[in-house]
Design brief:
The protein folds into 2 domains: 155 residues, Rossmann fold (3-Layer(aba) Sandwich), CATH 3.40.50; 73 residues, no CATH class. The chain contains 11 helices and 11 strands. Strands 5-6-7-3-8-9 form a 6-stranded mixed β-sheet, with helices on both faces. Strand 1 and strand 2 form a beta hairpin. Helix 5 packs across helix 7. The longest helix is centred in the middle third of the chain and has 20 residues.
């Protein structure tokens, strides 16, 4: 299993966000996590990633884990978008050496400058041996697929818009060598075009992915299995067709909806005004 939880319980103060429960995610599965605001979706993702400790029970994640929180803030606003993406791979330390050497090469002290040039040459050799140029091309291609051209990738993060920074963080997590991805509301701050492009990329990847969704139609399109969280419990779990019923939507979300199948066989949820 990629993710396995046993007796997992989450409490904050006197409030129980998740009653004791077991669940598992098989390798390669694309899991959608849905429920009303405040149901505990974000808390659950934080516990799975180790960002928050459960009150009781345990979670085991196999392989390397990548986590995209709802709100992403890169610490170094002077870092270029490309360097931010490259930091998701093991060659990040080499890039740091290159940038430090580049800075020292501008030092007016000839001794410092000469040593920096030697360090730069060595770091570039290590970068080449580690497959850095191929990884860089891969990162640029991944960013371009989310509407981030090369000129944007060369700019400092602090000069980018909020939407661009969000797409950088999305591209970074997809570019990482993580086996399992936890994505909390990955389509936040994205236009519909980039929402669909992102989720198409995620669906095509040979990785285990757990994504928290607000949009039930997107959850239906891009999830193999859906978990519905209600009042601190797993209300239901199963395929989108099994889980996303008119009864569930009314009981969990308090709204009436029609669940239909379109001409392509895709589940379609149409909300009804009262």
């Amino acid at each position: 299993m990629a993710i396995e939880a046993q007796g997992l319980e989450i409490q904050i103060g006197a409030r129980t966000l998740l009653h004791p429960t077991d669940f598992h995610v098989a390798k390669g599965d694309k899991i959608g996590l849905v429920g009303r605001n405040g149901a505990g979706k974000t808390t659950l993702t934080r516990v799975i990633t180790g960002d928050m400790l459960p009150t009781s029970g345990k979670v085991r994640v196999s392989g390397k884990l990548g986590y995209l929180p709802q709100d992403t803030h890169a610490a170094d606003q002077e870092q270029t978008a490309l360097d931010r993406m490259m930091s998701a791979r093991d060659i990040a330390s080499i890039i740091s050496r290159i940038r430090k050497a580049e800075k020292d090469m501008t030092n007016p002290d000839p001794d410092i400058m000469t040593k920096a040039m030697n360090r730069y040459d060595k770091a570039m050799q290590d970068f080449d041996k580690a497959g850095g140029y191929a990884a860089q091309s891969e990162a640029i291609a991944m960013a371009d697929s989310l509407g981030l051209p090369q000129d944007v990738m060369q700019r400092p993060l602090g000069t980018l818009s909020g939407g661009q920074r969000r797409r950088i963080e999305l591209a970074r997590i997809l570019f990482s060598d993580a086996d399992t991805l936890i994505l909390d509301e990955p389509t936040n701050h994205l236009d519909i075009k980039y929402q669909l492009q992102l989720l198409n990329i995620v669906k095509s990847m040979h990785k285990t992915v757990l994504s928290a969704f607000h949009d039930l139609n997107l959850a239906a399109m891009y999830s193999d299995v859906i978990y519905v969280v209600k009042d601190g419990q797993i209300y239901s779990r199963g395929t989108p067709r099994e889980v996303l019923t008119e009864q569930m939507i009314e009981e969990v979300y308090g709204v009436r909806a029609k669940v239909r199948t379109d001409e392509d066989g895709q589940l379609l949820i149409i909300y009804q005004a009262k």
